[in-house]
Design goal:
By secondary structure, the chain is of the alpha/beta class. The chain contains 13 helices and 21 strands. The structure holds iron/sulfur cluster (SF4). GO terms for molecular function: 4 iron, 4 sulfur cluster binding; electron transfer activity; metal ion binding.
Length: 436
């Protein structure tokens, strides 16, 4: 998924040569949508409903390198006049996973009293590219924030990071010492503190309903990389042609956890992994995203504008014929993902429950009424026990998983969390043991 809204229509044909930064696909002019630019200089090999395949002219293929003033010279520049048009023309969308077109988010007036929140929480375990970007380019992030503040007529901004990220806090605080209107705020290191409404609750003390937008709190929330792309669109006049990601797990020697900056859009996961040492033996899943909400993908899957992590796990445990109950979360693992994990373990699903704070939205997805604040899971676990489950596969937030552990073992139910195989891959403690 690259953006929310109308799909983009291809603007190039097979055989055509394209330059880096050339527009290759675009949504209809007046529709909510986005614009796509070639991330390399190359020749169009194929055009489908899902993708445009471009063969690089450079025989070395896709260079995975950080953008620099030098490399930016090779990207076609934007020539729009005003800030909002530049952001639209650059194809900036929410980089944190939502993919909402940023020009639309910034096309409003908060009346001089609004707030911009820069979301640097990166609450999915193991992901660290936002954190590292804040350390590398704090001035660029701050420029992006100032641009957003000016566009939406806000008088205050907060950069929100996890409290354990002391180095990030120090770097940002130092850069902000002469800025009265921008402050750093910290939140607990617990999933899902990076959820938009969780951040607003923690920073502004206002709990929004699941269907309410940040605007209800006179606020706009933007991901760190989105703000970097806003700066690049306005100051450098470059479109979005690359993505920061974090590589995690069984890649190369031992365990990998490293950020990759400015990976050209369209690079396949296979290319990324090969460049980082190749796959280790005994691979389980390849997940695109974070451990809680990522999706299982293949090596051919390309990096897109919302890709966060690429995680290679060890194989899932074999639990053939085990009867399992599923416990869904509004912010973490939901029905489809938990069912997929049960199938991969060879288990039989005998019941499904959802956390009582997980409510169904119009699109069928679940959302939490109060993210990360557990209502207690005893009733749900008892229901799964009544369905004759031997074990529970839960996708719950960290706080709720602790309450699952308060009940399930007493009923002689095993517990698997949807992130267990990722934590085991990294030799880390499991989510459900958070308070031990
Ligand atoms: S309270 Fe329930 S729905 Fe909300 S994040 Fe925790 S497990 Fe998910």
């Amino acid at each position: 998924m690259n953006h929310i809204g109308e799909p983009a229509e291809p603007l190039v044909e097979i055989g055509e040569t394209v330059e880096t930064g050339q527009v290759i696909a675009k949504s209809e002019e007046d529709a909510l949508g986005s614009i796509y630019h070639s991330s390399i200089e190359g020749k169009v090999k194929d055009v489908t409903n899902e993708a445009i395949f471009i063969k690089p002219l450079d025989k070395d293929g896709l260079p995975i390198q950080e953008m620099s003033p030098e490399s930016e010279k090779d990207i076609l520049k934007l020539d729009e006049d005003d800030s909002l048009s530049l952001i639209k023309a650059a194809g900036v969308v929410g980089s944190g996973g939502a993919g909402f077109p940023t020009y639309k988010k910034l096309d409003l007036d908060l009346g001089g009293e609004g707030i911009v929140i820069a979301n640097g929480v990166e609450c999915e375990p193991y992901l660290l590219h936002n954190k590292e970007r804040m350390k590398k380019n704090p001035e660029d992030i701050i420029t992006g924030i100032k641009t957003a503040m000016s566009l939406v007529n806000a008088n205050k901004a907060y950069i929100v990071v996890k409290e354990k990220e002391k180095k990030v806090v120090d770097v940002l605080t130092n850069k902000l010492k002469d800025e009265e209107k921008i402050e750093v705020k910290t939140v607990k290191d617990i999933y899902p503190m990076g959820e938009e409404r969780a951040i607003i609750r923690e920073v502004l003390g206002k709990l929004l309903e699941p269907d309410e937008l940040p605007l209800e709190a006179n606020t706009v929330v933007l991901n760190i990389e989105t703000l970097l792309n806003v700066k690049r669109a306005i100051v450098d006049r470059t479109p979005v042609v690359a993505k920061d990601i974090t590589l995690v797990g069984r890649i190369g020697e031992g365990r990998t956890q490293k950020p990759l900056f400015d990976v050209p859009l369209g690079t396949t996961i296979e290319e990324l992994i090969e460049e980082s040492g190749g796959l280790s033996n005994s691979v389980g899943e390849i997940i695109m995203g974070g451990p809680f909400t990522g999706q299982n993908v293949t090596l051919e899957t390309p990096v897109n504008k919302t890709t966060g992590g690429v995680i290679v796990t060890l194989p899932l445990p074999n639990r053939e014929k085990m009867k399992v109950g599923l416990l869904e979360c509004g912010c973490g693992g939901q029905g489809e993902r938990l069912t997929e994990l049960a199938e991969k373990m060879g288990a039989e699903v005998v019941g499904t429950e959802k956390c009582k704070q997980a409510v169904e939205m119009k699109n069928g997805n679940l959302k939490c009424t109060n993210p990360g604040e557990c209502p207690g899971q005893a009733e749900k676990i008892l229901n799964l026990k009544k369905n004759k489950a031997d074990a529970v596969i839960t996708g719950t937030c960290a706080d709720c998983t602790n309450t699952v552990m308060g009940v399930a073992p007493k009923l002689k139910l095993g517990v698997f969390h949807s992130t267990d195989h990722v934590n085991r891959t990294m030799g880390d403690r499991l989510v459900r043991k958070l308070k031990e």
